[in-house]
Amino acid sequence: MALAVRVYLQLKKKLEDEFPGRLDIRGEGTPQATGFFEVTVAGKLVHSKKKGDGYVDTESKFLKLVAAIKAALAQG
C-alpha cells in the first residue's frame, strides 16, 4: 500500500474516532499528485488539500482541523 494511502486511512480513522458518525471524509488518489483529502461537516467543506489546505501531517495541523470541525458542528 502506498504511503499516501496509509496516511489517508490513518487520518480518516483518527477523525472518525474523534467524531463518530458526524463527518463525511473523502479521499482520492490521482495520477498527477498524491491525491486529495476533503472533510465536510454538515454540508460545509472544512478542509480540502486540493483547494490549498495542504497535508495534515503534523499535530498542529490536526488540531487546527479538529477546531474547524468543532466550529462547523457548533454552527450546524
UniProtKB/TrEMBL annotation:
A Pfam family per the record: Rdx
Chain segments annotated as coiled-coil in the UniProt record: none
Any GO molecular function: antioxidant activity
Alphabetical list of InterPro entries matching this protein: Selenoprotein_Rdx-typ, SelW_related, Thioredoxin-like_sf
Compartment annotation: Cytoplasm
Broad class of the protein's primary localization: cytoplasm
Keyword Cytoplasm: yes
GO cellular component: cytosol
Keywords, ordered alphabetically: Antioxidant, Cytoplasm, Glutathionylation, Redox-active center, Selenocysteine
Similarity comment: Belongs to the SelWTH family. Selenoprotein W subfamily.
Biological function: Plays a role as a glutathione (GSH)-dependent antioxidant. May be involved in a redox-related process. May play a role in the myopathies of selenium deficiency.
Subunit comment: Interacts with DPYSL2, PRDX1, YWHAB, YWHAG, HSP70 and HSP90.
Record protein name field: Selenoprotein W
Species name: Colobus angolensis palliatus
